[in-house]
C-alpha cells in the first residue's frame, strides 16, 4: 500500500534523511521518499505489519509534525 503523509517542519537534506531513515527502520516499510518541496513523505508499506500510527510516531519522534 502507498500513502502520502503531510509533514510540517522539514526544511533541509538532514530533515529528509531523518524522516526517511526513521520510517525505513519500521518493519513493513518498503520505501519512504520525502519531498521537501511538497512537505510530504510517500511511504510504501505492508498494512498488515505497520500502522499509520506507528509511522506517525516515528516521524514525530524525529521532531516533525504530521498533519492529518
From TrEMBL:
InterPro entries tied to this protein: CopZ (IPR049740), Heavy-metal-associated_CS (IPR017969), HMA_Cu_ion-bd (IPR006122), HMA_dom (IPR006121), HMA_dom_sf (IPR036163), MerP/CopZ (IPR001802)
Major localization class: cytoplasm
GO cellular component: cytoplasm
Keywords: Chaperone, Copper, Cytoplasm, Metal-binding
Classification via PROSITE patterns: HMA_1 (PS01047), HMA_2 (PS50846)
Keyword Chaperone: yes
Range of residues in the leader sequence: none
Subcellular location: Cytoplasm
GO molecular function: copper ion binding
Stretches assigned to the HMA domain: 1-67
Record-given protein name: Copper chaperone CopZ
Species this protein is from: Vulcanibacillus modesticaldus
